[in-house]
TrEMBL record:
Coiled coil: none annotated. GO terms for cellular component: cytosol. This is Guanylate kinase. The gene is gmk. GO terms for molecular function: ATP binding; GMP kinase activity. Its EC number is 2.7.4.8.
């Protein structure tokens, strides 16, 4: 890495598109050397989840106190629960020179864009709406009503994909994982080129 400060990488997209699945594939891969920012949430812990690994699980009161104390770089209420990215971990880890990876829903991504315009924004898109619906049904975590609601939301969210730096279609998990890793690598190369040009210009002007 040529830059001292790490890159902030944001992976977002509609519910059921496969954000969690692609994120796991990325972090299970030996080539990945960026850090995952564990979010805080007020939702119920699911079977198999571990506090401090999957999420930091908080009560609504605890979460709202953290909002008041400005402890999030972004937070959103999603299907009745709060989700947020802790500011301290992200800023410290980037300052230490590591890339930080966020997997968050689209409202939170919008807030990150305002605070970190230099971050890398990747939108994960489904091959089509039929497959998105199939994935939500097969996942088996939501009622038909909630699925309908999520599909309606997804239609709205898909219109926002042109605000992102890259769109990755999640047709196949490993292909999507590879595309995300390539995009991050390319961003580092571009940043290094810009920095070296800038150094040259500064030397010429001095
Ligand atoms: N804005 C925001 N969204 C988050 C954060 N952490 C997770 N999410 C998103 O919240 C949504 C719900 O997550 P979760 O309850 O784990 O369910 P699932 O990912 O749909 O299985 C997903 O779209 C996550 O990407 C966060 O810190 N901030
Ligand atoms: N490329 C893919 N092809 C087929 N099914 C997928 C793919 N990616 C994810 N899935 C499945 O789709 C469902 C939703 O994925 P998940 O990662 O929970 O989505 P999100 O985190 O975006 O809500 C899961 O059952 C997952 O196994």
């Amino acid at each position: 890495m040529t830059s001292e400060k790490g890159l902030l990488i944001v992976l977002s997209g509609p519910s059921g598109v496969g954000k969690g699945t692609v994120r796991k594939a990325i972090f299970d891969h030996p080539d990945t050397d960026f850090k995952y920012s564990i979010s805080m949430t007020t939702r119920q812990m699911r079977e198999g989840e571990v506090d401090g690994i999957d999420y930091f699980f908080k009560t609504r009161e605890e979460f709202e106190l953290l909002i008041d104390q400005d402890k999030f770089i972004e937070y959103a209420e999603y299907v009745g629960n709060y989700y947020g990215t802790p500011v301290e971990y992200v800023e410290q880890t980037m300052a230490d020179g590591h890339d930080v990876f966020l997997e968050i829903e689209v409202e939170g991504a919008k807030q990150v864009r305002e605070k970190f315009p230099d971050a890398l924004f990747i939108f994960l898109a489904p091959p089509n709406l039929t497959q998105l619906e199939e994935r939500l049904v097969n996942r088996g975590t939501d009622s038909p009503d909630i699925i309908r609601h999520r599909i309606d939301e997804a239609k709205r969210e898909l219109k926002l994909m042109n605000l992102y730096d890259y769109v990755v279609v999640n047709d196949d998990v490993d292909a999507a994982r590879q595309r995300v890793q390539c995009i991050v690598e390319a961003s580092h190369m571009r940043r290094a080129r810009v920095e070296s040009k800038l150094r040259m210009l500064l030397e010429v002007n001095n």
